[in-house]
Amino acid sequence: MRVKSLLAAAVASALATLTLATLTFATGAWAADPSTGAISYPPSFFAEVGPTTALDMVMRLPGFTFDKGVVVRGLEGSGGNVLVDSAAPVAKNDTLDEILKRIPAGSVARIDVIRGGAPGIDMQGRTVVANVVRKQTAGFHGAVSATTQLLSDHRVLDGARAEGQWRWNGKLAELSMVLGKGPDDQLGDGPRVRTAADGKVLIRSNVDADAGGLRKWLIGAYETPFQGGRLRLNGAYMANPYSAEIMDRLSLPGGREYEYDTQDRLQAELGARWARGFGPTSLELVMFQQWNNNDTKARFTSAAVDRDFELDKKVTESVGRANLRRRMSDHLTLEAYAEGALNSLDSQTRFLQNRVNVRLPAANVRVEEKRAEVSAAAIWRPTATLTAEAGIKEETSTITSTGDVALEKSLSFTKPRATLTWAPDPSDQVRMRVEREVSQLNFDDFIASSSLVNTGAVLAGNPDLSPQQAWVAEAAYERRFWKSGAVVLTARHSELTDVIDRAPVYGPGGVAAADAPGNIGDGRKDELILNVAVPLERMGLTSAQFKAQGTWRWSQVTDPVTGREREISNLHPLDWEAHYTQDLPALKANWGVDVMSAYSERAFRLSEIETKKVDTWLLVFVEAKPRPDLILRVEFQNLTSRDVNRIREVYAGSRRTAPLAYVDGRNLEYGQSLLIRIRKIL
Q1: How far is CA 129 from CA 86, 134, 328, 474, in A?
Q2: Is residue 622 in some structural domain?
């Protein structure tokens, strides 16, 4: 799609959202910096809810939706939308939410919500980020906590964690340890029914399934002045074993099906950042190394068939990055970065059916990727109310595959970007963006994988993929009101190229015998996002807040099997969540309700369509603080007894020509649970 058309779409979306400006709201007690457009929230803003960690504070920010980031190779685009002391954490397996949990609320000086950009801040390609600014005073902050979770299937899962933070002489040390069990809420007990195309019941059974994992983590960091700048080193060692057991007792035709899956996952990472200012110029050097070993085994047995699947996958990543910023004047800032990465994947797959070895496409492969990206951008702020950014990125990569699939391919993409932010007053802001985005290839798409627990199938891999590309036009309108109220409406349109979805794999004679990840052509995606935060004092509820977010999605792509238009696989048409919290100072407590929406998704394969429907999740919590250093939290989880319904429509061959063979549905209920946590502030 041409840039001119995209700009027109963005303008039209912005004008549509501006109709909200007719609402009349009063400004509140938050502080806006007119020179940058940032909104600062001091600790006093959060005092009435008594947060214990930086994550608690971030989740209370009006008009801000926390995003912990995505899993991609390289550092650009991988971080979430929260910075710590103006920098993105150099970590991946140690996720952003876990990092924020380890920052005590008492060590936070303020949180800035930066909209549209600010001098010296790397926005990581986002239009809005939050920056957690920590106090620099010397001393120790720490906490220990113990958790017990009681599940409806009588399992009792215990956990413990401890963390500490020391500051002295301009230095900082952090240490965290986590040990505990957790459940998989996608599996539970419930009925299963398989019917033929004519409605005849082929299988009727009851499923008894449970799954869970163990976390064994050791995480540390050290900061110190170094060579006129500041150096931060961090590392993490994370073992995450997982197992799932599914017993399927058949009343028709009789017998049983049994599956047992295990996954031994070991992750380790090291990160380093050095930053220094040279007058109006600042330099930042970043290095990152990670190792991921994943050993997966799945065994399925029944009266008709036995399946054994094994996958040994090893992934490594080495990244180096340099960021350079120069403030040319009060109105103009220039930025540039260069990033290089070396990635590798080794996979060995073994699949037996009835003790006979079955060969899979891309079962045993080694993939190497050499990737580089350079970028230059200018941020211009001609007035206190207007900010414009223009930049361009150039990405190149060479991917080599050996083993079952031998190939080498080179890719190169130019990615321009332009944003415009207009804030006519402290309460209103309009943001617009046009950008060419190029997705990262997912190494998991390159190799064969098991999906026995979901579909009874093994999925082939395909290393010969091209990244999905998109021209994106986005417009957002934000309105601040009352003390802590905000409403944000965002409209986004994406014109897609080389959409990655499941595609047929053709064998001899041009007959499609399987499917694998593949590029299936062009498509489109539209999104409408509404974010609302409302303080409820004016409605008679003191110290109470309501927050909600909804995302509507529409997509279209041509099905490579049938040739007809359909939605993109696994894309949720609607996601929403709502949160109510209220402080009870007389009781030294607070309570709240969290609701996560039901959602559905569909995946399209050569001879099957799988639909997954997940019901609403409801949680009620009560948190009491009998002493300032002691917190007791009780969560009543999944009060709706959420069901996870998986429906497989399986055809006798290709969906294009073959008739429907059967429909298999499993409706599993995870059940309610009770979580009790005691946290002691040190």
Answers
A1: 10, 16, 23, 16
A2: yes
Domain that holds residue 649: 525-682
**Phi–psi pair at 96, nearest 5 degrees:** -60, -40
Q: 265 near 294, Cβ under 8 Å?
A: yes
Count of CA atoms in the C-beta half-sphere (13 A) of 627: 7
CB neighbours of residue 600 within 10 Å = 13
Kindly report, residue by residue over 469-518, the tens digit of the pLDDT.
999 999 999 999 987 899 999 999 999 999 999 998 887 777 777 788 89
CA geometry: angle at 373 spanning 369 and 379, to 5°?
Answer: 155
Task: Find all residues with CB under 8 Å of 293, minimum gap 6, and list them.
Answer: 264, 265, 266, 267, 313, 314, 315
Contact 619, 591 (CB under 8 A): no
For CA atoms 509, 515, 518, 520, the dihedral sign is: positive
Distance CA 666, CA 453 (A): 11
Confirm whether 67 is domain-assigned: yes
Point out the domain boundary residue: 135, 169, 184. Answer: 135
pTM for the full predicted model: 0.87
Of 105, 135, 165, the residue that ends a domain is 135
Phi-psi region of 254 (alpha: psi -120 to 50; beta: other; left: phi over 0): left
Residue 47: count of CB within 10 angstroms of its CB: 12
Closest-CA residue to 217 (of 179, 245, 247, 270):
179
| Position 414 in a domain | no
In this structure, what CATH number is given to the domain that contains residue 76? 2.170.130.10
Query: How many domains does the structure of the chain reveal?
Result: 2
Write out pLDDT tens, residues 617-632.
999 999 999 998 999 9
Q: How far is CA 406 from the centre of its chain?
A: 32
CA 150, chain centre distance (Å)? 27
Residue 253: cis peptide before it, omega within 30 degrees of 0 = yes
Look at residue 282 and tell me if it is in a domain: no
Element (H, E) at 107: none
